[in-house]
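#help-structures

NK: newbie question. if I give both the sequence and a SMILES, will the prediction place the ligand too? trying with zinc ion
OV: yes, paste both and it writes out the complex. here, I ran yours:
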Amino acid sequence: MVKATTVLCSRYHRSGYKYDLLLIPSSLHRTMPEKRQRKYPTKICPTCTKPFAKQGKYCCRACGNSRVFTPTYKAKVSNALKQKIIDDPEYKQAQIAKILPDIPIPPQIESPMGLDQFIADGDLWTEV
Ligand SMILES: [Zn+2]
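OV: that's the protein plus ligand as structure tokens.
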């Protein structure tokens, strides 16, 4: 009897029949090729200027997500927001409401407990 490796395949065939179990003999299983590794040409990351051999334009997620805001761009956004506030006073109020919520945080009241006092067994004690 041939020793077999059972491979469960959950895919459906085009015909509509589900693949049940694929019985692969152990000898054949050993000779099965490894997953093909794709070789990418070495490129230079435009953000960090380091060479890398991966898929895509950037070497890593951090480099792909990083953005440099130029002073020109900052000025453009700033002027646009200033103009929006001038044009729409409600927008200004909405922005203020985001920063200042309706319920103000009460100022911290000084503890009534003195320096020579302490709490023990649920009572306030004064050191003599
Ligand atoms: Zn990079």
